[in-house]
Structure formats: structure tokens, C-alpha cells
Amino acid sequence: MSTRYWCESAWVDGAVARGVLLSADDTGTLTAVETGIDTAPSDAEAVHGFVLPGGVNAHSHAFHRMLRGRTHGDGGTFWTWREVMYSVAAKLDPQSYGTVARAVFAEMLAGGYTSVGEFHYVHHAQDGTPYGTERPRGDAADPVAEADDHTARPRGDANDDAEPRAHAMERALARAAASAGIRIRLLDTCYLTGAIDAELSPEQARFGDGTIDGYMDRHAGLTEAFAEEFPVNAPGESFVHVGAAIHSIRAVPAANLPRFAELTGPVHVHLSEQPAENEACQSAYGASPTEVLGRSGVVTDRLSAVHATHLSEEDIAILGGSRSTIVMCPCTEADLADGIGPARELADAGAVISLGSDQHVVLDALRETQGLEAGERLRSGQRGRFSPTELITALTEGGARSLDLPVGALEVGKACDFVALRTDSMRTMGSLDEQIILTATSTDVSLTVSGGRVRVRDGVHAELGDISELYAQAFAALEMEG
Ligand SMILES: [Zn+2]
What we know:
Helix content is 33%, strand content 21%. It is an alpha/beta fold. The protein has a single domain, classed as TIM Barrel (Alpha-Beta Barrel), CATH 3.20.20.140. A 9-stranded mixed β-sheet has the order 3-2-1-4-13-14-15-16-17. It has an 8-stranded parallel β-sheet with strand order 5-6-7-8-9-10-11-12, sandwiched between helices. A hairpin with a 2-residue loop joins strand 1 and strand 2. About 5% of the residues have low confidence. Zinc ion binds next to loops.
């Protein structure tokens, strides 16, 4: 049994192709990509407009979406925004986070993304206690009740109460991604200090693992637990993957960084988003954050540096020379008044550019991509700093490289993940297919397919329904006004 889509026009091998027939097997993996087929075969769904490989959102913090449109009243800075963000983080528990993430991932699919790198650091209960290690309520006062409790809930019982609670937040995110149909690389984040040489604040307690060994042990446990619950099989049907992240040079001591060079797979890090981070790093270590990471052996082609906004020429040479990936988040960087990073210079030095929506001021793969080129034009006074082809590559192949996922191109052996854009809307009418990346918005996404299955059609999720309704549930779960 195969699933087939005939696309009027699609991005294949770095160019626009007409009459493209995509065939996927039962696992949702592409088995054939044929071009020049004039009409849709009777067993294929006809897809009109222009089809792109699914966008890869290489940097997300799902719960930050709940702050959208609520933080603009009093001006402020990145740091004052962060205070409001912590107040939302404090409300999350595994159940509510699952509800929030399901809505956010559904919006992401509607916005043109089919994969996400979830940079996740809200690991534990509010007081920092790891889930699965809490003492059952009342057992301290009543040991008999504890014994009864164990009798009532034998190991392996399938009911909800007996579910393993270790890694509960991570499981909630992964399940939300799988149920929405977005491919996730869960970037399990190490967050040990509140600032360089400073303990975590009470609101950061739930992010921390105490020591680097604490993080490495939990990370190994998570990797094992996910391998069991979400085995990685054929490219199309594998939706959940684990990676690692260093929150930032603020949150992980330099002495601990070499441990990340021991890990296999992608490593992500927030890098030089704010000048204050660079200054603190210089005064503590006498070097820039990039230099500190470089000396620790973690600046490699497996590294994704997120933001990379305030860099020196030396920093650019280090990141480019190692062929690291840079995750630019132009809409968030504009929203938080971070600045405009040197994306063109990084690309010229050898780095790979990808895109992320970070705190989700918008979840629109098109606007995010346009933001990259807009920033470049504004800071350089020149047009075409990134060609339309380079912009599409950043959104697709660049992100696939960042997250090490078998996506990013309509190619045999990769996942059948794609989005269709309307070419006849009032926004896109007249645009050349190869330039539509600069004119369409998420409103023009008519169809999102992942693993060969339709996930969102005309803004409605195929299985979860109205995405606004999912958000109503998410705001209710956090007792926030929607
Ligand atoms: Zn971030």
C-alpha cells in the first residue's frame, strides 16, 4: 500500500519542478519522486499551488507561546520579558504542558513546519524534585497507607496512576508532538547555574540537575526511556528523537562543557543573544562565549548555536571553520530587541544557516524566513543577501542538519513531509514559485503532510480539529485567560 500525492509544482533538487508525483510507503517514507507528470494519476491526491519540503523549526520553547501578545504593554528588555516567562513556567505540570504543547505543535504544523527542535529545560516539579521521586502524599504520616498504595497499584498496571512518572514533562512533550504529527528532536537541556558562578533562583529550581553528572545521568535515563516508548524505525514513522542542549554559557560552568563533546548526536546552545552575556563571560573567563565553547571541544559540525547575535570576527571564524549550524530566530530577536546577528558573514565563513521560532511571537515558517533576509537588508543596505534558494535551504535542509532528522528535501528515503502554499491568494498572486518564500505567509499554507499523512488542511488539524479550541484548552489548563 502506498500513498501518493501529485503536486502541480514542487521544490525538488533545489529548483522548481512541475508535475511532481510523490509516493510514500506504509511507514511514511518517500519511495519515489517523479517529475514532469502532467496530470494526477487516479490513485493520487492532487495538490495545487507550490509544495515545499516541510519547514524545520530548529528552536522552540513550546510554552513561550502562551506569552504572545501579553508582554508588549510596559516596554522593557529581554530580561524583564524573562520574568514574565518564568511566571508561566511555574504553572506547568506534565498534564497541562501536554495540553499546551499539543496546541502549539498543531499551530506549528499549520504555520508550515513539520519538524521541531524543542529546547526543553522545565524538567522537574516546581521545587526542583524530579518527577517519579516524590514521596506519595501522606506516606510520611501513615506508613500503612503507603503499603496499601503499593498493593493497590502494582508495577506495570496499565492505568494512568501507575504510569512511570520519571521524565514526565519530557514524555508529555513527546506525546503531544506524536499526537499532533510533528517530528520532534527533544533537546534535553542542561541548566545548572542561574548566572556564571550563581546558584539557581527559586523560579529556576525546576530547570536544574544539580551537577553535570546529575544531568548526564538523567539524560542517559531519558534516552533509554524514549528508545523504549518511541523506537526509531523507518524515517517516515519515527517522530520522537532525543538530543542534548547546553542552556547557555550562563547556565553551565565552563569546566563542565567538555562533557558534551562525549555525546553523540546534535548539541544545541543559546549563544551570545545579549551583550550582557558576553560581558559576564569575558569577566569570568577572559574569553567570549564562542571561544569558551571552542576551547571545550563542543564547537563542531554537530553544534547548533542559537541566535549568535553579538559575535566578534574571531567568533565567526570559529563557528564557520567548524561548520556549525546557526539557528537564527529573526522574529523573536526582533520581538525581544536582541539585535541582528551576522548571518551572511557566518554563512560565508562556512556555517550552515537554519531557522527557529524560539518564543513564538509568530509561528509562521514564511515570516520567519523572510525575517532573516529583512534583517540582512536593514543592516547592510543591500537586497538579496540570501537568495530565495538559500532561504528555502535554511528553512528545510539547514534545519534538518541542525536536528539530524531525515527530512528537508523531497528525496527517496526521506520522510514524506511537505507543505503546500497557495499561489492564487491575494498575497501570492503573481509571485514566481521560486520567490514565493518571500511573499507567502502561514495563511497561504493549504496543506501540511508529515509521515505521508495529512495533518492540517486549510488551518484545521485533521485529527485534533480547530486549533483555536486547542488553545482554549491550553489557557484553561494554566488558569490563564485565553
Ligand atoms: Zn531560546
